[in-house]
Amino acid sequence: MSEKTFHLEIVTPRELKFEGETSSLRLPGVMGELGILANHASLLALLEPGVAVYRVQDRDHPLALGEGFVTVAENRVVVLVESAERPEEIDLEAARQEAARLEEAPGGAWASPERQARRQLAMARQRVAAWH
Amino acid sequence: MPSDRDIRLRIRSVRNIEKITKAMKMVAAARIRKVEALARASRPYARRLQEVVAQITAQAEERVHPLMQTRPVEKVGVLILGSDKGLCGSYNSNLFRTALPELAELPGGRPERLVLVGAKTRRYFERRNFRPDQVFTGWEPDLDLAGRLAGLCAGWFLGGEVDEIRCFYTRAISSMLQEPTRERILPLVGESSEARSPVACLYEPGAQEALDRILPDSLRIRLHQVLLEARSAELGSRLRAMTNATDNAEKLASELTLEFYRIRQANITTEILEISSGAEALKG
Predict the structure, then answer these.
(1) What's this model's pTM, rounded to 2 decimal places?
(2) Residues A127, A106: Cα–Cα separation, whole Å
(3) Fewest C-beta atoms under 10 Å: which of A128, B8, B37, B145?
(4) pLDDT digits (tens, 9 = 90+) for A32-58
């Protein structure tokens, strides 16, 4: 199948997580989910913690992303995020507990933006860990 | 003249010191490799972030973000990155000797805000009656510390408490060569936008929000690079100091061993002389 592809790089301050050709990408933008295909218009978007999915040769790969942003220019997509974890790197039980703890803590999950972000990340971790 | 027993004790203590310096040398060498691996791992992000910053500042020519605003410099904030522990040669003293005269030349004769990193840094500057606003000791060159430093710097700069922030640290030119340097951390400089034709670009949610997020991040990443550089210079300096100390101990021990043999031989000769002259006396 000759699907159009574009170059994707997913980078965190600690490592280069992924670099290669992909056919599609979904990202958790601050204004809603972003879907990116080849020949996307130039874009700079902020991302919130959540689940990203990129497709390589008809296989979807999920990642739990921390905060960050994405730039798109001439079929090169660069995702710069605080953290990016594959399913096998996530401790599902720890993520569950983290989410529950943030939910129960005084002030609730929406008390501060940081807490909200951490909760979102914990939820994303759960979803990515349970991916199949 | 020292007895052979004295010399034997000295040899033993020199050998013990040698063991310690050798251990410290090996620890420093192992930690350099670790810091260098960290630095390598952080480089792709730093490079791409710089690209993005260059790109958006080129496009947003007329908008100058508060973190990039240059003002007449009347109040200067200073960051000094030294080490927590000694035994690293002239690492700290070289840096402090570079920084001290420059601090006196600042407008007002001293920094308006001062952040000291490292226990040695604190001791040196507090003894010279500097009052730091923040001190970080027991530090590791991680993103957490970089984030906290970036937060402090950005806060002071945006609040108008300082017009510029300078950082004194040591660069590792190679594992054997370190050099104290001074760098301006704030205001951030936009890359000159030569040849970069502004590409029309969509911003989500907006250009201002993007800059508000990305510029503080680039400040943090810059400081992280600086911390890694300073730590790697510290370890390089320690490695060299400990290598020299080990070599010296080795040399001293072998000199003392030679001395020990000489004295022992002298003692034996005297004793034989005494015995034989005693025997001679009995015969007569």
Answers:
(1) 0.85
(2) 25
(3) B37
(4) 899 999 899 888 899 999 999 999 988
